[in-house]
Fold:
Amino acid sequence: MSEFPISPAASADGGRKLRVVVVTEDDPVYVREFFDVFFDGLAPSLLDVRAVVVCKAFHESLPATARRVFRFFGPVDFSRLLPRYLFAKFASRDIGSLALAHGLRVIRPESVNSHEFVEQVRGEKPDVIVSVAAPEIFKSPLLSVPTIGCLNIHSGELPAYRGMMPTFWQMLEGREHVTVTIHEMVPKLDAGGVVATREFPISGSDSLDRVIRGTKQAGARLMLSVLADIASSRALPPATPLDMSKARLFRFPGPEDVARFRARGHRIF
Structure:
C-alpha cells in the first residue's frame, strides 16, 4: 500500500540531487528518534528522498511483537513503555505520519524482497537505498537496484556486534561507548565494509532508554553527513572491509540477559 503526497523535492533540479529510498520498521518510540533528526536535517538542494518504506516491526504480527517486547522489558518497564507507544500511534507520531508531514511518499510492503516491491523501487531509479532498522535481510535483487549502493546504519561495532539489539549487548559487556556504524549492505547480515562510525558514550550506570535515543539521534546526523558526501562525489566513501574471523552474531535478548544487564548496574529506563 502506498501514499502519494507531492514531494517538494520532485520539481526542483532533480538531476543534480541524490535519489534516496529509505527502508525502516514501524517503531514509533525509538526508531522515530532517528527520523525526527533525519527529516529535519535533509538538505533539499542535495537529496531527493523518493520514498520512505515502513515495514512491520520484526517482520511479524503486532501480538507477536508485543509478546517479544514484554518478555524483554518485564511487567514494570513494559507498563512504562506502553503509554509512550500508544500515544505515538494514536497521536499520529509514527514514522509514516512523520514522513507524510514532511511531504514524503510512504510505502508499506509485505516484504522488501518481493518481486513487486523490488520493481516498484527500481522504478524510482534510486542512487542509494538506506536501511534504518529494516526487519528483513535484503536479498541480491534489491541490493542490485541502486546505482551507487545500499547503506545500513547499525548501533554497534562491526563485526563484533552483528545482529539484534547491539546497544544492549555493548552495555551488558561493559563497553565505554556504543559505536554507531554505517556500512555497505551485502547479502550476508552486517557483513559489508564500514564507511563511517561515531562513538556515543555509556556511563557506568546508565539506562538503555537514554543510550538508544542518543545513538539514534547521533546516527541520523552521521547518515546525513555521509549522504551529503555521496551527493557531492557520486560514489560511496572508501569502505574498510570487516575481519569476519572476529565476527559475533547476537539474538534478541531474553529475560536472563536482562537480569545480567541489571546486575551490572544498568537499567532499562
Q: What stands out?
A: Residues 1-14 have pLDDT under 50 and may be disordered.
